[in-house]
């Protein structure tokens, strides 16, 4: 499924990246690879964004992220 289609179905906004990106699966930040979408629901896991291999990340609207995590 294209990222644009997934965003539309979940009422999300694509902030960066290609809407044409193909998403094939979901996985946790630490396990995700190319083609996977993952999520960040707790700011304490923000540092994992730097090392995740996920193609896209859902960000929970309630999570406030700062540069220092």
Task: Provide a short characterization of the protein structure.
This protein is an alpha/beta fold and 69 residues long. It has one helix at 3-9, and strands at residues 25-26, 36-40, 56-59.
Give a written overview of the molecule.
With 69 residues, this protein is an alpha/beta fold. It has a single domain, classed as Udp-n-acetylmuramoylalanyl-d-glutamate--2,6- Diaminopimelate Ligase, Chain: A, domain 1. Helix content is 10%, strand content 16%. It has one helix and three strands. The longest helix has 7 residues, at 3-9.
Global Rg: 12 Å
Per CATH, the class reads Alpha Beta
Instruction: Report the end-to-end length measured between terminal Cα atoms.
Output: 31 Å
**What's the total helix number?**
1
The structural class is alpha/beta
Helix content: 10-25%
> How many domains, as an integer?
1
Strand order of the largest sheet: 1-2-3
Number of strands: 3
CATH topology: Udp-n-acetylmuramoylalanyl-d-glutamate--2,6- Diaminopimelate Ligase, Chain: A, domain 1
Kindly report the name of the CATH homologous superfamily: MurE/MurF, N-terminal domain
Largest sheet: 3 strands, parallel
């Amino acid at each position: 499924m294209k990222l644009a289609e997934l965003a539309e179905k979940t009422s999300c906004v694509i902030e960066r990246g290609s809407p044409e990106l193909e998403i094939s699966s979901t996985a946790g930040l630490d396990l995700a690879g190319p083609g996977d979408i993952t999520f960040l629901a707790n700011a304490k896991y923000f540092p994992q964004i730097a090392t995740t291999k996920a193609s896209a990340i859902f960000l929970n609207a309630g999570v406030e992220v700062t540069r220092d995590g």
